[in-house]
Amino acid sequence: TYDAASFFHGFYETALGKDEIVTEVVFPVIEPPVGAAYEKYEPSAGAYPTATMAAVVELDGDEVADATLVTGAIEPGPTPTPDAAAHLEGETPTEELVTEAAELAGDESDPMEDSDGSVEFKREITKTLAKRALVTAIDRAGGDIQ
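The chain above was modelled as a monomer; its predicted structure follows.
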């Protein structure tokens, strides 16, 4: 049994031993006051994503009690952006706050330049994906962006 944070080690690398296979994947039930969202940028239908962003937001009344933002496809493995998440915690979600957190997520990321795009391109895409994921996650948590 692995949690996602300890399972992924990099591109095509996991914690699985040579004699292990995945037989089951279990996800917790997510319902308000928790919301989750996943966004991806694919250059064309069916292509591998150039960048992805996952967001999970837990609300306590009108405030963000806990947040997690994780990039994908731009770094060797799923990578949390803790500064962006911390920017939201204890605050009431506003358009400005969500935009600032999304900007932090992109700035905090460390993308690899490759044939899919430059470091700067991937940071900008990450900012856009982060904002979309946060807006959706907050909505799914039952919150409103002020």
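DSSP finds four helices and six strands in the chain.
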